[in-house]
Amino acid sequence: MTHFTTLTEAMQDLQSRGYTEEFAPEKDYLKVTSQDDVKCKSDEFKVDEFHRFEGTSDPGDEMTLYAISCTNGMKGLFVAAQGTYSNEVSAELMAKFNVSDRAEVNTEGSVQPLTTEESQA
């Protein structure tokens, strides 16, 4: 999988692969930002892959981009700033984005922990 340098580059690649909708979390569901009446509860979508980006000088610049597929056939993107939605949505919905223990999610775009050798360099 390609590792992207910028959020924009990753979004453009995913959009070219059919992830054309934009999602935003609200309470216990994701809503499609262009269609207020379209909502996906946590059991109606899955995270296909994600890419994490860290700011070079400001930890507040950390972003995670999620590629999402819904059971209704919609595919789209959800961009989450570090901790932004933690108090606004249900724990069940946010748990859906904890992908570290799910083998089916493509995590190659994630930031990998430093190895012992790298941390001593």
Could you give a short description of this structure?
By secondary structure, the protein is an alpha/beta fold. It contains three helices and seven strands, in the order H-E-E-E-E-E-E-H-E-H.
Q: What is the global morphology?
A: globular
The domain count comes to 1
> Which secondary-structure class do the elements indicate?
alpha/beta
The overall pLDDT average reads 77
Low-pLDDT parts are 111-116
Q: Tell me the span between the first and last alpha carbons.
A: 27 Å
Main beta-sheet strand count, sense and barrel state:
7 strands, mixed
Beta-strand percentage? 35-45%
Instruction: Tell me how many strands there are.
Output: 7
Give the spatial strand order of the biggest sheet. 3-2-1-6-5-4-7
Helix content: 10-25%
Q: What is the N-to-C succession of helices and strands?
A: HEEEEEEHEH
What is the CA-based Rg, rounded? 15 Å
Secondary-structure topology with pairs:
Elements (H helix, E strand, L loop, with lengths): L6 H10 L4 E6 L2 E4 L2 E7 L3 E9 L9 E8 L4 E7 L9 H5 L10 E4 L6 H5 L1
Parallel strand pairs: 1-6, 4-7
Antiparallel strand pairs: 1-2, 2-3, 4-5, 5-6
General description of the model:
This protein is α/β, with parallel strands linked by helices and 121 residues long. The chain has one domain (7-100). Helices cover 17% and strands 37% of the residues. It has 3 helices and 7 strands. The protein has helices at 7-16, 91-95, 116-120; strands at residues 21-26, 29-32, 35-41, 45-53, 63-70, 75-81, 106-109. Strands 3-2-1-6-5-4-7 form a 7-stranded mixed sheet, covered by helices on one side. A hairpin with a 2-residue loop joins strand 2 (29-32) and strand 3. The chain is globular and about 35 Å long. It starts with 6 loop residues before the first helix and ends with a helix.
